[in-house]
């Protein structure tokens, strides 16, 4: 393989899985550097779940496998300018994770991966204990190296309760354009009731440091949705379609989500929708049953197993060729409020 042209070597490496790629890396320095150069085009290590957990919650049972921090090799060369910035960050004790200063917890990264043992599917838990407050240049380098490795992995989902500190991420990589500073996650979810640092901070982190291949899910559970949060969510739904292909919002304990539906409907019928998220799903409750807007076209209503399904289309006033499909599932159990599940898709 050494004698083959680089483009042929790349084609061959595209056909192997991550474990095989790791074996090739260990052959010699040339292939290690070659794979680094084309890492975005080659197989990624896949995990089922990425989480940031409180360190004290990790018990000492053998279900966890602690990853040695020194187990990766970095080719990164620190220049004097960045070294000075790092030293300032060390002096200020800038944390790797966003900190709630009332509790001051220490955190660790938890990675879940499915494996097979005698044809039985099992789940292995890996723990990565990165320095929460890097105390020297070596620890800063270790954190940078591991974050870069995590950026190059693929995660099926996560339910973020704690977050990496964006300030530290930007300091470590200093706007290095060669490294996408994003975690690749198929279906991340945010549970508003368990977020430590507010919905606005969580959404900023999602937009700036996640690459989402499928959908983002936000569940308010029993929490009220504030007017400010409605504005933040509406702004994302109408302007971040290039970053989010599907956005699902759930709220079964408050009525404010209907306000968001009204804003989306108004936007679709009267404004430029070029940046709208292509697929929007809303799940919420209402005191009143669902009424089809008079501007709806091709209305279809069906009943099945106690659920009322309403399908219709809306045409954008600025562009008659731009249409949106709405599908609403409506049901009511006993004397409870109506529950709506609405799916809005750009046709």
TrEMBL record:
Signal peptide span: none
Domain F-box residues, every copy: 1-45
Pfam family, one: F-box-like
Protein's recorded name: F-box domain-containing protein
Organism: Meloidogyne enterolobii (Root-knot nematode worm)
Superkingdom of origin: Eukaryota
